[in-house]
Design a protein that fits this description.
Elements lengths: L1 E3 L5 H14 L5 E5 L6 H5 L3 E4 L5 H8 L4 E4 L6 H18 L3 E7 L9 H16 L2 E7 L1 E2 L3 H5 L2 H4 L1 E4 L5 E2 L1 E2 L1 H13 L7 E4 L5 E2 H12 L4 E4 L2 H10 L4 H15 L9 H6 L6 H9 L5
Parallel strand pairs: 1-2, 1-4, 2-3, 4-5, 5-6, 6-11, 7-10, 8-13
Antiparallel strand pairs: 9-12
The structure holds NADP nicotinamide-adenine-dinucleotide phosphate.
């Protein structure tokens, strides 16, 4: 049995759906959730829905019973909280006899990264290595889906500011990443232990601005800003301080080149590369009636 945690979340739910598509059936698929009521639709389709809150380790023995492969979807929240949650899940998986954990990590796990997200995933990857279980790391690049949030009201003002300098990254939609993760989970055998799930081309944010401008028909210019100024602006818009500084740190990591990596791992799993930025930008920013 394959169990996907965070199955009420946006990535986790899509992984479950891609597993169903791949197998042509819900048999052998389980969903770990914090609120079973929100997964009633999955239960109605024959998925085994199990309470699996990593903050409640006592739940996890029953959640992971009989599970062969665990797709461990990383949680959100402040750094130490996430590391502890993932550690609880890994410990419970080991105790329950799970054979193989596939973990949704992040492309940037560098020890010298300015991003706290890198520290979280690096710590969890170390915990996984120490678990003695079979582990597959699925290191996701940046979600393309977050570009509208990164742009904020830039399509109206014409200027968008991030502390990403001239750094480059690739952007892949959450749904495509979920498809690749499901492919890895469904595979009877995997060629590698670490998959870098990236697009096939790198773009700086000047190019992102150009793609969004092209798709939307609006003038748009990228203007790099400092990480501290950016974090202060986000906090001023009501984001919790930890999240404001974590996001600023992530863009500082882009500026430092930590996301400037491309691989063919996505295509190796899925059979074709993810959509290029221009296609995704059309979907995200394509002119719609106001
Ligand atoms: N690559 C990127 O650009 C990028 C961007 C954003 C986030 N991420 C990472 O990818 C993960 C999945 O992204 P997403 O789009 O699916 O985000 P999301 O919709 O916010 O989902 C977050 C998931 O974390 C789960 N979670 C939170 N606390 C938990 C706990 N105590 N125990 C078990 N599960 C818990 C949530 O469970 P419930 O469904 O029960 O609420 C939810 O499924 C995020 O959590 C984050 O680690 C990556």
């Amino acid at each position: 049995m394959i169990l996907v945690t965070g199955a009420n979340g946006q990535l986790g739910r899509r992984i479950v759906e891609h597993l169903i598509t791949r197998f042509g059936s819900t048999a052998g698929i389980a969903a770990g959730v914090r609120d079973a009521g929100k997964a009633a639709d999955l239960a109605a389709r024959g998925i085994s829905v199990r309470p699996a809150d990593f903050d409640r380790p006592a739940q996890l023995a029953a959640a992971f019973a009989g599970v062969d492969k665990l797709v461990l979807v990383s949680t959100d929240g402040p750094r130490e909280q996430r590391i502890a949650q993932h550690r609880n899940a890994i410990g419970a998986a080991r105790a329950a006899g799970v054979r193989h954990i596939l973990y949704t990590s992040f492309l940037d796990v560098a020890a010298d990264s300015p991003a706290e997200f890198a520290a979280v995933h690096r710590a969890t990857e170390a915990d996984l290595a120490a678990s003695g279980l079979k582990v597959t790391l699925l290191r996701n690049t940046l979600y393309a889906d977050f570009l509208p949030m990164a742009l904020g009201d830039a399509l109206r003002t014409g200027r968008f500011s991030l502390p990403a300098g001239a750094g480059k990254a690739s952007f892949v939609s959450r749904d495509e990443l979920a498809e690749a993760i499901a492919a890895a989970a469904a595979a009877p055998c995997l060629a590698k232990d670490v998959y870098e799930l990236t697009g096939q081309a790198l773009h700086d944010y000047h190019q992102v601005a150009a793609a969004a401008a092209q798709a939307s028909g609006r003038a748009l210019r990228y203007e790099p800003v400092g990480a501290d100024d950016y974090a202060a602006a986000l906090a001023g818009h009501g984001l919790p301080d930890w999240l404001a500084s974590a996001l600023a740190g992530m863009y500082a990591a882009v500026a430092a080149g930590k996301f400037a990596r491309v691989s063919n791992d996505f295509a190796a799993l899925v059979g074709h590369p993810p959509r290029p930025l221009a296609c995704v930008a059309q979907e995200l920013f394509g002119a719609r009636p106001d």
